[in-house]
Amino acid sequence: MLSGIDEERLIRMIERVTPSVVNVSTIRQVEDIFFHVAPRRGIGSGVVFSPDGYIVTNNHVVGEAQDITVTLTDGMRLKGRLVGTAAVRDVAVVKVDAHGLAAVEFADSNKLRVGQSVLAIGSPLGLPGAPTVTGGLISAVQRTIVSESVFLEDLIQTDAAINPGNSGGPLVNMSGQVVGINTAVIPYAQGVGFAIPSNIVKSFAQRIVREGTVSTPWLGVVGVSMDEDKAQYFQIPYVKGVLVVREVRGSPAYDVGIVPGDIIVSVNGQDVSDPSELYSAILKKDVGDVVVLEVVRGARRYVVHVRLDEAPTTQMAA
Q: Which domains are present in the chain?
């Protein structure tokens, strides 16, 4: 891990990036079982998106906060205002009254490769002082996390240590460019953390700055790229497309009868060969739009019309 990398070059890169990383602290008003309202403090991280005070972080860090404080690496504390969120992607933008901040540079996350060295930077556990740094590798790409309250697609998996408070902080490559925003850690596993790809973060952050909170359509399937090995394993004909391995109960896909084992080969006549192409095609639509999916089930090929719902709110902890 990180072997063969020039140490002095690495240190200089970290020193260049850390001024762009901020601590985000929040206060939420919550009710206990007796309906008493009390403040609850939260911690997270963020990155400077633009020099004029826009900060990118996670929706689950700031989404329901009544009070947001952003602390820069020089110790300056600034009042934060929530600009908006894209809940399904766990992305949020906060604005502070400041100018001339050191903004991060985003890399093209579509070019990420498994085995690439990365660093996770953030403010774990709310510890005072400069952001901390952990190193690791890109373990996998296009991961999906699904539970009753979570549906996050196309994630980066890394073994760089991500601890509570790292949420919203950057995952950077060895050039100091942001390849993802840390969002989650699996508490019962070692070396399993996840980040939202930089291309998704940048796209949604730009929309939030322009439009405020962004409603996102979803289909509600977890899929993998189809290949001959999978076709042989599942004993189904090989066709190029996205093999559905799970559909989310109550989702648009579930409501029209799409089931595991189906292969989605096109959206509105546009061929799709991997999950990222499928998700990209869906995200180009609006909530309420109807899309036409071409689906292969066994020896049968058919067309189904799906009305896209708004993606559910994401709730994560990291």
A: 1-212 (2.40.10.120), 217-310 (2.30.42.10)
